[in-house]
Give the backbone structure.
Amino acid sequence: MALTILLLQNTSKFTRLRYLLLDQMELVYLENLLLALTTIPSLYSLNTIYNGPDSGKSNIYDLIFRLPTLKYCKMTFKTGFDADLPPAANNSFSPIKYLYLKGECKLNILSSILSYTSQLRYLSVDTLDADARGPSEILSVASNNYLLRASISLGKIQPEQLLSFMSRHFTHLNMLHLSKSANNLDVYQWKALILSHTSHLRIVISCN
């Protein structure tokens, strides 16, 4: 907390700050600190752990994606990524290249997140779940030309839902790491189904 107050009072003392962990801060402090971090020119890596009210999540997304030099970002939301996030405006793109999402994340939220991270090289999703809406209702954004590797832990999602999502967002992917499954298919069945649609993809299986 002392560091938080010092950062908020005088960010000019932290111009060389490159790595920062924000662990379970109160929402008002977290929002103010993320806003202050936009003035730090060297912040490369941010690890945020949040267990506060759902009402603050959308603003946290927005503030993190505004950080001008951030390349590595890990967001841990203990109650999941379930707050609505509007698609990015034309001038709202983040420089993040490595993104780790820890917590349950639905397809529509991930789609919106990808609209902000057009420079993404690597994506990790702790638990990917289907959304209640149909595939045609999920935001369609341009496929990321740089996203080549992804790691996905499968949650409550069906093969056709994942395949539809991949066809929109993962067209340049060349390596996919899959782990566990919350439905009746094991990860090897998932691998066979995905390869039947995208034979160029290398899929690595983890059975933990």
The helical segments are 2-9, 27-37, 57-65, 107-116, 159-169, 187-195. The chain has a mean pLDDT of 84. Residues 17-206 form a domain with the Leucine-rich repeat, LRR (right-handed beta-alpha superhelix) fold (CATH 3.80.10.10). The radius of gyration is 18 Å.
